[in-house]
């Protein structure tokens, strides 16, 4: 893969990554040299510096690595608070932060969750930059 | 002079100043004017000394103002000097200091002003929340609605899970920092508090509560970095800048080891190496306790505490776990109680160390302190860390 060919259809760019996610596919970068998973994909591996990064579908299943609830939200998300967010360790080794569709009190470290994807809500579209408007939002659901 | 190679001057801090901290009725440039006035109280005018200027500043969201290098140089009367704003969220102040240190060290300038300013109260609490969230990865983190407290809560939750630390231990860190601030006339919150006050305060992002969080506040600070010869000519007390280190880490919290703050470790070790010391030589550290858990994590990353015991920072040295050094943490009261006007914070840390090492820290003086470490972070935890080792002139 050469970087000079990057365009908005390439999953190593954000538009390419979110287009695949909208279709239900979570793509990760995988370093050919050290196996580090990079979410979202990008041209270089942060673990070892290699530029031999391939793009591969990632399991959407994982476990809660850490979690909290947002009681003092940014203005764009005020109506949703308090809401639960977590760092999830996915089955293929990558980690991803996202909302959890559960009350804080019902979540524990180690819980099994699955990544789902939805369209942005009206307030989310309003808070989005022009190029983000149609990007999907991922949410973890408890298993 | 030595022959055969170019002599590189070792930078010193020759003067410091700060504005009042907290909720003020002054805009950023005016807060800067107060900090500058204190720093130059016993010196010639800035225009007669300063050859370059760096301004740490987090965000234009608060005052809708960029070009802070140009603006503050003008307000200081510094015509046509190189001047620029430095951005690294809450590490902006120490980045400004580091640039000044390098300019003096490499012989480019004899006197450089490092300053920082933030007018956080201009935008209200929700404005500050929004401005600070710009420090997170836009694509995943910001769009998920995380905030500064919730990002650090993710670290805290994991830290409590992996170690013997409890929410009460984190509360004790806040109590210790408020007790230190009670002796600091510059502090935003110079009041002692008790553990119950912390534990019973409003949830912000569990396990973190309101009193685990450094406050929103205004402030400015100014630090004059010079050659030792110039500081001597000016008859100023000197503090050596013996080492400086910086390191960036992943912007997204999820991609890091969340309890081993590797970027901070690298930054601290680089500063130790330049200074020719190890962690055990540090008498005082000003840590970046934006949230209580940061103090625990940074105590471990900087080599003061064995893994999993950093939360004991509130205990007297004799009561800490085996392997801890005798370092005293944040005699200023830290970000929690001294205050955390984002772009100025790294320079307020330098100010505290200057006062401690020159014997002007009053009732909060740490006796016989010769070496101080500053740890200033931006983004979430070690997204960027800047560290400096400062020592007394006598320690040379
Ligand atoms: Zn790699």
Q: What's the tally of helices of chain A?
A: 2
Amount of helix of chain B? 25-40%
Indicate the radius of gyration of chain A in whole angstroms. 16 Å
* Mean of pLDDT of chain B: 96
Strand order, largest beta sheet of chain B: 3-2-4-7-1-8-12-11-9-10
Radius of gyration of chain B over alpha carbons? 19 Å
The averaged pLDDT of chain A comes out at 95
The CATH superfamily of the domain at 12-123 and 216-233 in chain B turns out to be Thiolase/Chalcone synthase
| Distance N to C terminus of chain A | 37 Å
Examine the secondary-structure arrangement and name the CATH architecture of the largest domain in chain A: Beta Barrel
| CATH first level of the largest domain in chain A | Mainly Beta
CATH topology of the domain at 12-123 and 216-233 in chain B: Peroxisomal Thiolase, Chain A, domain 1
Main sheet properties of chain A = 5 strands, mixed, barrel
Q: What is the strand arrangement across the widest sheet of chain A?
A: 4-5-6-8-7
- Overall strand count of chain B: 12
Q: What is the largest interface, and how many residues per chain? A: A-B, 39 and 35 residues
Count of distinct strands of chain A: 8
Morphology of chain A: globular
Protein name (chain A): Zn-ribbon domain-containing OB-fold protein
Pfam families (chain A): OB_ChsH2_C (PF01796), zf-ChsH2 (PF12172)
Domain ChsH2 rubredoxin-like zinc ribbon (chain A): 18-53
InterPro entries (chain A): ChsH2_C, ChsH2_Znr, NA-bd_OB-fold, Thioester_dehydratase-like
């Amino acid at each position: 893969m050469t970087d000079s060919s990057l365009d908005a259809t390439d999953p190593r760019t954000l538009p390419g990554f979110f287009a695949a996610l909208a279709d239900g596919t979570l793509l990760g970068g995988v370093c050919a040299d050290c196996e580090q998973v990079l979410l979202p994909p990008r041209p270089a591996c942060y673990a070892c510096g290699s530029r031999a990064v391939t793009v591969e579908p990632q399991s959407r299943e994982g476990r809660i690595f850490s979690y909290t609830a947002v009681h003092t939200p940014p203005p764009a998300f005020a109506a949703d608070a308090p809401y639960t967010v977590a760092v999830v360790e996915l089955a293929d080794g990558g980690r991803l932060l996202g909302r959890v569709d559960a009350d804080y009190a019902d979540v524990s470290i180690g819980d099994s969750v699955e990544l789902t994807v939805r369209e942005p809500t009206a307030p989310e579209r309003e808070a989005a930059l022009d190029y983000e408007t149609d990007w999907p939002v991922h949410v973890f659901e408890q298993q | 002079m030595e022959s055969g190679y170019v002599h590189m001057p070792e930078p010193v801090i020759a003067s410091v100043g700060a504005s009042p901290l907290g909720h003020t009725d002054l805009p950023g440039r005016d807060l800067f004017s107060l900090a500058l006035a204190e720093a130059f109280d016993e010196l010639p005018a800035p225009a007669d000394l300063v050859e370059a200027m760096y301004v740490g500043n987090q965000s234009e969201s608060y005052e809708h103002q960029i070009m802070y290098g140009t603006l503050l140089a003008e307000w200081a009367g510094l015509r046509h000097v190189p001047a620029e704003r430095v951005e690294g969220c809450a590490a902006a102040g120490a980045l400004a200091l580091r640039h000044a240190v390098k300019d003096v060290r490499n012989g480019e300038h004899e006197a450089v002003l490092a300053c920082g300013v933030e007018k956080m109260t201009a935008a209200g609490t929700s404005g500050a929340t929004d401005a600070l969230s710009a420090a997170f990865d836009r694509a995943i983190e910001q769009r998920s609605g995380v905030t500064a407290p919730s990002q650090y809560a993710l670290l805290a939750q994991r830290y409590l899970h992996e170690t013997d630390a409890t929410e009460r231990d984190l509360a004790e860190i806040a109590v210790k920092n408020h007790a230190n601030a009670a002796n600091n006339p510059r502090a935003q919150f110079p009041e002692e508090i008790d553990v119950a006050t912390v534990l019973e305060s409003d949830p912000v992002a569990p396990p973190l509560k309101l009193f685990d969080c450094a406050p929103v506040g205004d402030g400015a600070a100014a630090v004059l970095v010079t050659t030792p010869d110039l500081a001597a000519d000016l008859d100023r007390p000197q503090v050596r800048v013996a080492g400086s280190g910086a390191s960036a880490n992943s912007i997204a919290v999820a991609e890091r080891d969340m309890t081993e703050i590797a970027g901070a470790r690298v930054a601290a070790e680089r500063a130790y190496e330049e200074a020719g010391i190890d962690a055990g030589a540090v008498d005082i550290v000003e840590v970046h306790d934006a949230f209580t858990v940061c103090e625990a994590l940074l105590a471990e990353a900087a080599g003061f505490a064995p893994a999993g015991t950093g939360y004991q920072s509130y205990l007297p040295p004799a009561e800490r776990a085996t392997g801890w050094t005798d370092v005293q943490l944040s005699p200023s009261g830290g970000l929690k109680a001294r205050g955390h006007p984002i772009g100025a914070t790294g320079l307020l840390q330098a100010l505290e160390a200057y006062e401690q090492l020159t014997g002007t820290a009053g009732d909060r003086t740490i006796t016989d302190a010769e070496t101080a470490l500053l740890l200033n972070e931006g983004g979430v935890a070690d997204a960027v860390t800047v560290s400096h080792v400062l020592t007394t002139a006598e320690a040379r």
